[in-house]
Automatic annotation (TrEMBL):
Membrane-crossing residue ranges in chain numbering: 52-76, 96-115, 127-146
Origin species: Emiliania huxleyi (Coccolithophore)
Record bears the keyword Transmembrane helix: yes
Lineage summary: Eukaryota, Haptista, Haptophyta, Prymnesiophyceae, Isochrysidales
Keywords: Membrane, Transmembrane, Transmembrane helix, Transport
Membrane found in the keyword field: yes
Compartments (UniProt record): Membrane
Identification of the protein by name: Sodium/calcium exchanger membrane region domain-containing protein
Length: 150
């Protein structure tokens, strides 16, 4: 018999007689995180309406970015400034070294945590995913803005 996670697919939910009950039974998992699974929310409260779900996701994304920005402003930047002053680093060198370490540290600690579980596919996808994102998106954005006229 398949576990509940494998039954949580769009095709099976939409084929069920009661999509809401099916989503609550097979998709509301404790492993979904702090806020739970979004699938029962989509099928039960929002009536499987993409027009209602998309603005909710956009609002959640905006809230997450604002929280990330304020957290970096309150906690990361002051520590970075203090370390660069203690090490007598010019701002550009501090940005290259300390900021890069602060940006990559979560990936390293996640890799260490996953390595203890012996889950190689997750470890590889975490490291390659972060590296590919930095190489393509961030490097592309830096190159784009470096060539922009003042």
């Amino acid at each position: 018999m398949a576990d509940d996670h494998s039954l949580c697919s769009r095709d099976l939910i939409e084929a069920a007689a009661d999509s809401c009950a099916f989503a609550r039974q097979h998709c509301a998992s404790d492993a979904a995180g702090l806020f739970g699974s979004y699938v029962p929310l989509y099928y039960c409260q929002l009536g499987a309406s993409p027009a209602a779900f998309a603005p909710l996701c956009a609002l959640l994304l905006l809230l997450t970015i604002c929280c990330l920005g304020s957290t970096a402003d309150l906690f990361f930047i002051p520590q970075l400034t203090l370390l660069s002053e203690l090490l007598v680093l010019p701002p550009d060198v501090a940005g290259i070294t300390l900021l890069a370490f602060g940006n990559g540290a979560p990936d390293v600690f996640t890799a260490v945590a996953v390595a203890n579980r012996a889950d190689f596919p997750l470890l590889l996808s975490d490291l390659l995913g972060g590296s590919v994102f930095i190489t393509t998106v961030v490097l592309g954005a830096v190159a784009w803005y470096a060539n922009a006229p003042p």
